[in-house]
Write a structure and sequence with these properties.
Order of helices and strands: HHHHHHHHHHHHHHHHHHHHHHHHHHHHH
Oligomer: single chain
Number of helices: 29
Number of strands: 0
Distance between the termini: 69 Å
Largest sheet: none
Length: 477
């Protein structure tokens, strides 16, 4: 028996002023809606289906009375017959055009009155899910996506939750649709997720199908602003769960959202990104995670964007409230930030730059050993950046940091070799960027040399020779 879902999954945490569904979810007319309007104008010859014995007399009479004679109250008068007829029709009719029309009728029935989902969910027909899930495998894209829309309503507008195996199949299908190149129905897919992820129990199911990383990978690929808004909305509702709010930045959410905030020209996108940031600070029950999120936002230059928004003074009360909240929390986190916190956050963000902490000999003397903490997490991240990053500045700084770690930690050379860092640094000796080649060369020297006093003098001389026009390159012993 299915579990009972709460009628309001997050209680009073959903402030009606902060749920931007009414105006924004339907702001852009989707391909699905346009096509549905066209399909409503078609005429279906139900008599031909009766004559060919594809449908029964009862089913024929019911659908004709509802469709052609306009008896719109039929679903409420006899719910069991309504469910039986429609499930029979979608099971026994194969023609795409007719299935399209039937699905539009079902969707209209549900949209007119949300309580009508019980007609299908409480049907004596058995499991309501299988007939609809089968339609997701049809070739016709409209059939697929109108079915997905109906499934979302059936799953979210009833007190009983969708069964786990069916839920897993459905969410996996939605995720795969998001990943499709040039999917004309991506707004409809996102709309289904906006509905589903407001139910707390469905959020962890989405996590289990790798849904969060999929959302963020698509957001990182620069989609249009409407889809951008819808997918960030999905992240927002996910972060109302404290555990998911704590996990979110493990998927690199903050740097991606910070980029969106920086580039945003649409107020509704700005508003929803700020709302996610606020949740990432407010919702985690682990205060250390909330602190790490603040530091990550600082590292990603969110304070600069908040300053710009503050100067603009939007008329949107929610935006300004969130700007004030985030400003206060991020400024406080900056004051509490140690140099190692700054460094760790920068490395984890993957956005290395020549910030002062890298070139501080005092920092490396005091903190080199700390790079071994948490299973050498920071070292592994540096090596990963050496392999995956395409940014010359990131590569140059990562080479420098590897060299400084080796120079200041007695077993550093051995550990870096074990992690594959030496091989990556040597590969960068032939990089096209001269600064990357230079820092790689210095790092290799540090990995190879044993006489640190001699190397220190050599590096200091090379640094003076190489520095130009305010660009900090080279190393200081």
């Amino acid at each position: 028996m299915a579990q009972k879902a709460p009628t309001n999954p997050d209680g009073d945490r959903y402030n009606p002023k902060r749920v931007y569904i009414r105006e924004d979810m339907i702001a852009a007319t989707s391909v699905l809606q346009i096509r549905a309007s066209e399909i409503r104008q078609t005429q279906i010859n139900w008599q031909s289906y009766l004559q060919s014995q594809m449908i029964t007399q009862r089913d024929h009479d019911y659908i004709v009375n509802l469709d052609q004679r306009g008896q719109k109250n039929l679903p409420d008068q006899n719910p069991e017959t309504c469910a039986d007829v429609f499930l029979n029709l979608i099971t026994h009719i194969s023609k795409d055009n007719t299935i399209q029309y039937i699905l539009v009728l079902i969707d209209d029935i549900l949209s007119e009155d949300k309580s009508r989902v019980k007609i299908f969910r409480e049907s004596r027909h058995g499991s309501v899910w299988q007939p609809f899930l089968n339609l997701l495998n049809r070739q016709d894209e409209f059939v697929q996506h109108m079915t997905a829309r109906i499934i979302a309503k059936l799953a979210c507008w009833h007190s009983s939750l969708m069964e786990k195996s069916d839920l897993h199949f459905y969410l996996s299908w939605l995720k795969d649709q998001l990943k499709m190149n040039n999917n004309d129905y991506i707004q409809s897919v996102a709309r289904c997720l906006q509905m589903m992820l407001r139910v707390d129990e469905y959020r962890f199911a989405f996590l289990s199908v790798d849904g969060i990383s999929t959302l963020l990978s698509i957001l990182a690929s620069r989609v249009n602003f409407q889809v951008q808004y819808q997918l960030v909305f999905c992240l927002w509702v996910l972060t109302f769960n404290p555990l998911l709010a704590e996990k979110m930045n493990k998927f690199n959410a903050i740097p991606i959202l910070a980029d969106i905030l920086s580039d945003s020209v649409k107020e509704k996108v700005t508003r929803i990104v700020l709302a996610v940031f606020r949740n990432l600070i407010e919702k985690p029950e682990d205060h250390q995670v909330a602190k790490e999120h603040c530091i990550a936002m600082v590292q990603c230059k969110v304070l600069k964007q908040l300053s710009i928004l503050e100067q603009k003074r939007s008329d949107d009360e929610d935006i300004m409230n969130d700007v004030d909240f985030l400003n206060e929390r991020l400024q406080a986190s900056v004051q509490d930030l140690s140099s190692f916190d700054q460094y760790a956050t920068e490395v984890k963000s993957g956005r290395l730059e020549w910030s002062p902490v890298h070139k501080s000999a005092k920092f490396w003397r005091e903190n080199a050993a700390r790079l071994n903490e948490r299973g050498q997490e920071l070292l592994r991240t540096l090596v990963h950046l050496l392999e995956k990053s395409r940014d010359p500045v990131v590569l140059a700084v990562a080479c420098y940091d590897v060299g400084e770690y080796v120079r200041h930690y007695p077993r550093g050379k051995h550990i870096i070799e074990q992690l594959g860092g030496k091989q990556r640094v040597m590969y960068l000796l032939s990089h096209e960027d001269p600064n990357v080649r230079y820092e790689a060369l210095l790092a290799v020297q540090k990995l190879m040399v044993h006489n640190w006093e001699y190397l220190g003098k050599q590096l200091e001389k090379e640094q003076i020779d190489k520095q130009t026009g305010g660009t900090a390159v080279g190393a200081k012993a």
